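Chapter review: from sequence to fold.
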Amino acid sequence: MRALAFTMGGILALAVLLPAGVQATPRYAARYRQNCNLCHHNPTGGGMRSSYASQYLVPTEMVIKPLPPEKLAKIQPQLSESVAIGTDIRTIHHWADVDRQSPELNFFEMQGDLYVLFQADERLSAYLDRGQSSTQELFGLAYVLPWTGFVKFGRFTPAYGWKFDDHRMFTREGKSGDNVPLDLFFEPPGHTDVGIEVGLYPGRFALVAALLNGAFGSTSDFDQELGNTAQLSYRFDLGPLGFALGGSWLRNVESGGQRTAAGPFWAVQAGPFAWLGEVDWSELEASDSRRTALLTSHEVTWRLIRGLDLRGVFNYADPDIDQGTGLRIKTGGGLDALVTPFLGIKAMVNYYRNDAGLHVNDLDYTQSEFMLHLFY
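The token string follows.
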């Protein structure tokens, strides 16, 4: 009950800030029926926002209280014609109905990133994302291929599935709350690797592939093997419905053996409704064993008014589909709001079910989260 009361308090705080009579406007790429490069400098999404997003799209169409023209003119992420900056700061408070080291409790600094972009010309740029706990992306980006194609080289998060901004979605989470591997590599700080990525956007298709060290989170590689990822997606409309369908592939040689992961991802949009889903199979093959994990994450949102979404999530992880135990399930719901062009607030209640075999402490629990997000 305390988890529900804490989150309802956050929801009431949001309600005080809401103006009456505003128009509903899509918030997510699924609703705009566009690729991630509509809003981000990184063509595969995440990190620093594009000038179009930070100076127009977010402050005029995505927030509860849009800025008037005289205040829009004061948003200046461009320090010069060649240099721009940005930031993301997320602070979150957790409460849970169990008292132990895990899950997280009280305040947690979820993200602290500073972005710097050096634009050599309209096709060439250098990008630095420096985060807390030594997390970083550092890459050069060159739009030199046909079909608005690009070449990216350096350290980056490879394109695989949906880049949910919540790294605790099971398809992004590298480890469970008790430090048990969940078979993918996309939770900070071990979510980046060094290599080369190539992308093409012919029409409604998007094709991205990368060659990587296969040493996620490490500055050096210690074997002769290269990892690789690939992603293909297609966007289309059926009457009032918008769809995105795609698939991802990952292959890597790691300390425990050879990892192969693959699975579909999709988005469905209809008016104020949006559903993003992903399913992944991850197989780790060693000299004398083979283990296959099944992971899935889903996010459903309903736009109540411009800038305010009702949000629900469902996550499922089975670390070994040949075993009858070890399931982990997360179900949650709450509100997600962009109050101003620089402030987001999220209030959620999540229920975790943990079967014997996965956790040392086999406990089901309810956890609230209240997050403040400052971004520029």
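Two observations follow directly from the output. The helical segments are 2-17, 29-32, 51-62, 69-72. The mean pLDDT is 85.
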